[in-house]
Write a structure and sequence with these properties.
By secondary structure, this protein is an alpha+beta fold. Helices cover about 30% and strands about 25% of the residues. It is built from 9 helices and 17 strands. Strands 7, 8, 9, 10, 11, 14, 15, 16 and 17 form a 9-stranded mixed β-sheet that branches. A hairpin with a 5-residue loop joins β1 and β2. α3 packs antiparallel against α4 and α5 packs parallel to α6. The radius of gyration is 26 Å and the shape is globular.
């Protein structure tokens, strides 16, 4: 699920917006008869609105509002954030293509079948040029386009209510306290009046992940669950080149982040599910859950060669080799207890190399535990493991945290998160 943070702040702002709509019969701020709510209420599909609570760089509280698409053919409505493109450039494209398309529409209506192909091509050209106008901002003050994320996005990507609000927040360097969208107007097949929805994965997911430089699986006021990519550190390392990490990116997004949001870590080369705390109370509770082994974890991996064993448990104590940090070794006398369950999922080939797909369930949480147990316990290192096997140029470590079951730090509800392996 893309970034979504519905809380008391969004609920309060929603009530204010709804009161304004009902008392003024206008959805603009201040009310303007050019933007009557009757347009939306009498439509067939209603409209999506976004609410984003934030703090400015000086700590001032602000609320940003967004609306989906256009309103009465206009890109802007008073009281709402601007679109993610230059309105002037849009109008230039519109002025260039609209008259020609309307002329072809008239020919098609008169029975000219040859005009259909020409109209389709003109429409494609206009859509492509408008797509190229979109410019998005990220947490570091940088910008990117749809081409930069190499995504084949559906028509209308970049025009969603929440994306507009989030783009403005990133552009201004705001930190976020709430973020959600709601549907206003007639119910549709997928939307109901007054119901909040997260941003759509298809249109907004990849864009928002690139904006925030983190891929969120779950988020509330107590905790966050992200899908960490391979190659990104969990916490800062030594040296300026190792400053970029999940922790630092996380702190740039939210207001009042705690100094240490981590309750567990993943190796830089490992991808997958990572839990972070948003309050000190949550950090203590979640850390205790990991310490008491109340958390259930599963990892998917590709091991070099064919592993004959179907399933079992590896019990090999591990310790750091201080002469080769961060390398870990098996030491039956001085190592710390380490236990890992495993189950074979099948075989596949990578770059012509036979590999076994394995599911690992660590019962302890030692550094590099699965990597060491795969190489030393099963005798089959993980594919492209630069420490315990052989690094393959251009290939990542084939290890992914795919499933995590944990107790929510405040509600006590048992929650399960999954992330499919990207290999």
């Amino acid at each position: 699920m893309p970034f979504y943070l519905k809380n008391e702040e969004t609920d309060e702002e929603y009530r204010k917006m709804l009161d304004h709509f009902q008392s003024t019969s206008s959805y603009s701020f201040p009310p303007d008869p050019d933007f009557p709510t009757s347009d939306i209420l009498n439509s067939k599909k209603g409209m999506m609105f976004a609410i984003l609570g934030a703090r400015t760089k000086t700590g001032e509280k602000v609320v940003l509002r967004g609306f989906s698409g256009q309103a009465r053919g206009r890109h802007r409505v008073p009281g709402y954030v601007p679109p993610c493109y230059s309105e002037k450039a849009w109008k230039e494209i519109e002025g260039l293509y609209d008259p020609r398309i309307k002329m072809l529409d008239a020919k098609i209506a008169a029975g000219d079948t040859e005009a259909v192909v020409e109209r389709r091509e003109l429409s494609r050209q206009a859509t492509s040029k408008i797509r190229d106008l979109h410019l998005f901002h990220d947490i570091d003050g940088g910008t990117f386009t749809l081409d930069d994320i190499q995504a084949d996005m559906p028509t209308g990507s970049g025009d969603c209510a929440g994306l507009k609000a989030l783009n403005t927040a990133m552009k201004k360097g705001y930190r976020i306290s709430s973020f959600a969208e709601f549907h206003y107007g007639p119910d549709t097949v997928t939307r109901q009046d007054g119901v909040f929805y997260p941003p759509c994965s298809q249109r907004c997911g990849k864009i928002i992940s690139r904006m925030l430089k983190l891929d969120f699986i779950y988020l509330d006021d107590d905790m966050a669950v992200i899908d960490k990519p391979s190659g990104l550190l969990s916490v800062p390392g030594k040296g300026e080149d190792k400053k970029d990490c999940v922790s630092e990116r996380f702190k740039k997004i939210f207001i009042d982040p705690i100094d240490n949001p981590f309750v567990h870590r993943l190796d830089m080369d490992t991808s997958g599910i990572l839990v972070l705390a948003r309050t000190k109370e949550a950090q203590r509770a979640l850390s205790m859950s990991f310490e008491n082994r109340d958390v259930k974890k599963e990892y998917e991996a590709l091991l070099v060669g064919r592993v004959d064993a179907e399933e079992g448990t590896i019990d090999l104590p591990i310790r750091l080799d201080p002469e080769r940090r961060p390398y870990q070794i098996v030491d039956c006398e001085n190592g710390k207890k380490a236990s890992t369950g495993f189950r074979r999922l099948g075989c596949t080939t990578v770059d012509g190399t036979l590999c076994t797909r394995m599911l690992f369930s660590p019962r302890t949480g030692r550094t590099h535990q699965i990597r060491v147990h795969a190489a030393s316990g099963l005798g089959h290192p993980i594919y492209s493991d630069r420490l315990y096997g052989k690094e393959v140029p251009g290939r990542r470590l084939m290890l992914h945290a795919s499933r995590l079951e944990i107790t929510h730090p405040r509600t006590g509800r048992r929650m399960t998160f999954t992330s499919p392996a990207p290999f």
